[in-house]
Amino acid sequence: MDFTYTEEQEMVRQTVRDFAENELAKDARERDAEEKFPTAHVKKMGELGFMGLQVSPQWGGGGMDTIAYSILIEELSRVDASAGVIASVNNSLVCYGLEKYGTEEQKEKYLRPLAAGEKLGAFCLSEPATGSDASAMLTTSVRDGEDWIINGTKNFITNGTQAKVHIVFATEDKASGYAGVRCIIVDSDTPGFIVGRKEKKLGIRSSDTCSIILENCRVPQKNTLGSPEKGFSLAMNILNKGRIGIASQALGIAVGAFDAAVAYSKERVQFGKPIAAQQAIQFMIAEMDVRIHASRYLIYDAASRKDRGLDFSMASARAKLYAAETAMFCADKAVQIHGGYGYIKDYPVERFMRDAKITEIYEGTSEIQKVVISRGVLKG
Ligand code: CAA
User: Fold this and answer.
1) If we measure between CA atoms, which residue out of 134, 278, 122, 276 comes closest to residue 185?
2) Which residues are catalytic?
3) Which of 104, 140, 226, 265 has its CA 20 to 30 A from that of 377?
4) How far is the CA of 232 from the centre of ligand 1 (A)?
């Protein structure tokens, strides 16, 4: 496979890197400490086309391929993983689903402002009692004339307090399992739509994560996304794409930690020479380098399969599983190379370590990625 970057992909890397280093980097530590959502930066990301990079120009997006999208999320996360997930959820879990499954009317009303970054989107699948076992959800959608009446609680919703457009999953018939799940677009100003508790998190602290409570929320049935009976498989298909985004976020965290560790190892002198001259440090750097490259190739394999119209569910699960482990590995080694300085907040590597962990958890835990991969292998 040839993954030589196109001019467009190189241009995306340079544009995002400039933005991340010149604008995101400045206050990333403060935003993390204060759990402050990067409102002004997200607005700028919208103006730069980062919030709908792959959406067709017909709907106001950048019309780019999935490798360019991976580069976007990697470069944001290399500096600020919170910005990475904010963009990833909007691009993958919301815009992608709306463009693939939406009606022209839904695209005009919802996709266009989301792709332009004028509105932010969220994906409401998880519930307090159902995380990995997503189809066991308790939130209900009951038909009433031309409308749905939705009741229930969703939790761990990224972008939850900020988003104006929510992709909500609810069951119309719990007894029929995943076949009962419906996917419904809900505006945040719908009566009965309540933003719940904002979570205090270990990492990605400047992205917001909250619960969403739906109390007799009346939404027109024309807001159903895709065919009603395919709601659950639509969630799974959207998550296949989302996992490329989170794998790219993990890659960005790994690269950020790696770059910081390499620079520090050249500056820090112990025993009369830079610690980079010690084989113990060199071997850590080599192991980080290999895992970063392997992650990138797995991500690009998934991205290129998607862009060629092939099934990419196993490929995106492989990429997310491996890149998330790589983020944890590289952040851990980067802290180790920094020694005591790695453990304090003057250096960014402790933040990378805290941010890395979530990539093994959201959009399907590492164990769920192994379920997806092993099922694919065993069915032959
Ligand atoms: N791709 C496409 N379709 C898939 C799929 C995949 N990866 N996995 C399952 N499906 C389809 C199946 O084909 C089947 O549909 P059909 O009958 O139409 O073919 C349907 O989904 C049901 O499949 P299963 O019987 O395999 O379902 P299951 O109940 O055993 O669950 C699971 C499968 C893989 C465990 C799934 O529940 C899962 O992925 N769980 C993890 C959920 C998750 O990732 N949550 C993340 C929350 S969102 C988030 O984190 C967002 C955020 O804010 C950052």
Assistant:
1) 122
2) 363
3) 226
4) 7
